[in-house]
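Reply to dn_fold:

You asked what the input looked like. This is it:
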Amino acid sequence: MKVNSPDGSIQLVTGVGPQRARLLSRLGITAIRDALLYLPFRYEDRSHLKAFHELLPGTVETVAGTVVACNAARRRGRGVSVLEVILHDGAGYLKIKWFNQSFLQKSIAMGKTMVVSGMVKKNTRDMPPLEMDNPEYEFLADDADSLIHTGRVVPVYRVTGGISQKQFRKLMFALVKEHASGMEDPLPQEIIARHELPGLAESIRELHFPGSAEDITELNSGRSRHHRRLAFDELFYFTLGLAVLKRRGFRESGIAFRPKGTLKSDFLKLLPFTLTEAQKQVMEQISTDMSEPHPMNRLVQGDVGCGKTVVAFAAMMDAVESGYQAALMAPTEILAEQHYLNMHRMIDKLGLAVELRTGGGGSRNNGHAGEGTADIVIGTHALIQEKITFRRLGLVVIDEQHKFGVMQRGLLRKKGLAPDVLVMTATPIPRSLALTLYGDLDCSVIQELPPGREPVITSWVDSGKKEEIYALLQQEIGQGRQAYVVYPAIEESETSELRSAVQGKEAFERKFPEYRIGLLHGRMKPGERELVMDRFKRGEIDLLVSTTVIEVGVDVPNATVMLVVHAERFGLSQLHQLRGRVGRGTDSARCLLIAYEPVGEDARRRLDVMVRTNDGFMIAEEDLGIRGPGEFFGTRQAGMPDLRNADLRRDAVILAAARQEAFDLISRDGELRKYPFLKHQLDVFWKGRADLFKTG
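and this is what came back:
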């Protein structure tokens, strides 16, 4: 590799020593290429040079003038040094002041021309009448490249402690000048031409140091043609990787399941309800996938309470009847336990063995199962540990996929010989995100709720209206129903003002001594949590005080009230999941969101959305708009590359075009033999995750 190659280490650049290299690594910059692709987050137009007599106090302006006076002084009693410079533009004068920067005097010489940018103020002490304090500045030289910080459209970057904006901008200017032209364009030329994309080198130059201020609005919105080019690149690499994964799945030999259907039929007869048409349709899609000779990779999306779990259990019956094992991985112990309890009560009647494996609770079974011999194994991420073995794993079900990453999905698949994979999520995902994050999966959606269910009535309640809240609880519990109260913390902390579950339970016991009140939180042992949930399900607890451990999977049809305390502290998706714990029977249900001041702007938007709609997909779109794609899933997808420049909401049209091109290219040249440099860049983008992604 050449020293000045864009793939070279950033530490090889003049002026970047080990210490600055460490600082740059905080920004994800370790190679020259990383820096070139690290774009400004906004731009300032400093290209219009005004005459001094046109300046108005209170405005930010850029001006140029010749140094006609320079004086350093120290203000007595305050220990503040002041460097005062007078500029002359041929018609008027302007005073410039820098505080505690007297070292600048060495570089400021009489007769030099300076360009300065800053806030214009009235000079109330003496003449001239206007001044600027601590402006950004440059000396105007004969070199056309001399203007970096003023007199042009100036890029503003997100920097880190130890590197100033001016230092970073100067480094970027040198890097762009030296290396942008060396950025070889990996995109096939026909794709560039088809979408009328500008060249990569041109885009990098224009995005860091735009030649004109004509499209400053487009630059600041990320919609310039050069922004579109880099967004296209990222989305193309991303979906190209997914296209390879999907192609590999189609080419891989899998299990062609051929069940008689008797076991599934017997299982469905045990259900206390009738399947919806949407459930039947998705079950048919899954059965078709499982009959194919290559591994199934299907995502089942559905709003809370739509019955995804039953669909997954039915698929497990087909796998077991065909002579294989099935595994279900859930993100939390309490959800894994819930699945285990729901399943083994029915499975016992079918003569099958089911086992629970969690990190904290060891293993539990229904008397038939042994290590590696159970028909069905349910657990947390403990399932992907080396010590867990399977006799003949044929189907992997992953619940709440957004809590896991591609890496975990791949590790669980390795427990068998190319098993089928069924992914479930009760967190509805906007189509743009689903295409990107799950582009290697086929997608099914269950949008029909079971018959008889009514939308949950949601209210945003001020924390001061406690009597109204108590009255609602008395009304519902008095009619034999049950309620949840969810707190964001387990116990009160000296460093936090948040109300807590433990203290909340004590307060409700004082207010309602006649009620049976339970407590559930994540620090309890699995056996204790199971006992509490069993009592709540059997109606032996009237009011369950809990933390967010009941966010997903808990199903108590008799619960009709959900109180969320400190609702302003919860995410939108989390609030929607909590609301989904009630209204699971035929009775009408209420969700009260109790907020404490101060309630920030984003929190107000979240609460307003919750009151306005019960539609999970609409909520997901709103959540994406509030938080942005990078934070949408709470934790970044393990094993997934970051999107640094593309915005999945803003760039939805670009995503569709890039995805089409990516899948078309892989269908023609699955090994990318005609495009070795593209293949290399693809590996760089996916950071060489060979276990997940192989193009050769």
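The first helix runs from residue 18 to 25.
Hope that clears it up.
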